[in-house]
Amino acid sequence: MRILSADDVRRAVPMPAAIDAVESAFVRLSAGQADVPLRIHVETPTRQAVSFVMPARLEGAPMPALGVKVVSVFPENRARGEPSIYALVNLFDPETGRPLATLDGTYLTALRTGAASGVATRHMARAEARVLALFGAGAQALPQALAVCAVRSIERIWIVNRTPDRAQQLVERLRAAGLVQDVRIAPDAARALAEADVICTATAAQTPLFADSDVRPGTHINGVGSYKPSMAEIPPATVARAHVVVDQRRAAWSEAGDLIQARDAGWITEEHVIGELGEVAAGKAAGRPAPEAITFFKSVGNAAQDVAVAALALARASESGMGVEVEL
């Protein structure tokens, strides 16, 4: 069995490869070539935290995969100087069930989440998009920027964050990752959205991050931060006038607060979601109905993404001798 660290995964799977792997996973998910049960929630109320158990099995090309991720979200960790997200991904032989690998899932989670936004931006954002507004400066922020910049010729990145110091740290991480765009820290959301062609929200916000009136026609939004019905990053009025695509319908209506709250308040019905991202990527649903449309990809995360990227990382790491082999 091979053990892969975060650095092993980083070296094995650059963002463009992760985007392609996640796109394939979404296509297979929507085509019925995947078995992905709703994830199990384990709450830790004393720490305002939650852990998820996320199994998945993928069939078909480019490679079948079987695995399970366990991920814990402990927001209070930030005050202790620790990551708020810890995770492991275990892979098994889909033919025999034999354990194949254990991978660091903390970086992999950020990578596959960014890659999902890359897939959505590839199929839903206007081709001429040049400005990205990025909400949040945590672990998810850098992969969001890398993914959008991988599929669109972004020239300027606006960072919107409550804490200026963390925003500046993100600027430095963007530079260290090789992004050469004009990066600016926005004084407020309205300033960033006055130019934004693409918006990525990656926060733990309980209430919307901006005003609906600030969203320009033709904007594409990737909402990846909210993962519980009580959380919402996007205004319900924006959801109501947007062309909405989700990672998986069943999971979205179970967990996506942005959609659930808009539905419960009477802004939308469940028919407002026009399709899953896999359907869009396969050409079975429209990603952008018109140049002036607002498009919104809402993701709560799906284990199909995790096992697809993990399987690719394992294949590449095995070829190049990365990681550590252990006997169980």
What does the model show?
This protein has 328 residues and is an alpha/beta fold. The chain folds into two domains: 2-109 and 304-325, ornithine cyclodeaminase, domain 1, CATH 3.30.1780; 126-301, Rossmann fold (3-Layer(aba) Sandwich). It is 35% helix and 25% strand. It has helices spanning 6-12, 15-30, 105-124, 141-151, 164-176, 189-193, 236-241, 249-255, 257-264, 277-281, 303-320, and strands at residues 2-4, 34-35, 40-44, 49-58, 65-73, 85-92, 99-104, 131-135, 156-160, 182-185, 198-201, 220-223, 242-246, 273-276, 294-298, 324-325. Strands 1, 2, 3, 4, 5, 6, 7 and 16 form an eight-stranded mixed sheet that branches. A hairpin with a 6-residue loop joins strand 4 (49-58) and strand 5. The longest helix has 20 residues, at 105-124. The radius of gyration is 19 Å and the shape is globular. The termini are close together.
